[in-house]
Amino acid sequence: MGEGNLAEGARLFAAKMDLGAYQEAAKIKADWGLPDDMLQESVRRAYDANIKKGEYSIAADLAKKYSLPQDLRLDAAMRSFQRKIDSEFYLAAAEYAKEFGLPESMVREAASYAYQNSMSHSLFKNAAEIAEQFQLPASMMKEAATKSFEQHMQTGLYRKALKIAEKYGLPEDLVAAAKKKLS
Fold this sequence. Notes:
Oligomer: single chain
Shape: elongated
Number of strands: 0
Structural class: mainly alpha
Number of helices: 11
Strand content: under 5%
Largest sheet: none
Radius of gyration: 24 Å
């Protein structure tokens, strides 16, 4: 495409970004085949506007999608992460930190909070899955899986208890107890 056409596409893209119509802007970028370097100024304006409004997730998404400098992406992502932690959306915070390449310590911190929250609400199977997903210490996974197993056994869900025991490598006596109830 010629320079004039690219410039026209960039102008249309900038107009949509300035309006906050990010999906429409993305479509224009794709349809016109616009390179990221032509769009940096308008993306940066949208990024700054979202930071100013406190829309950190949107700002981080823009920075990631349009290749803004890494420090901008990380700044917005860290702010969004902290807001998720403050709102007690621990699992969302852990997944978000992982997706945006935040330090592993932040991922583990949020995952640990999510695990503890699930344990405190007797959501033991959920806690075991969180421990597995975020590679928390094996002892945490084992504790949650054991409690989940016991919970299922007490409620008569022996097949589910057996699946949990097998999936998380619980002691053989627990596997045998579930199999005995099933026979």
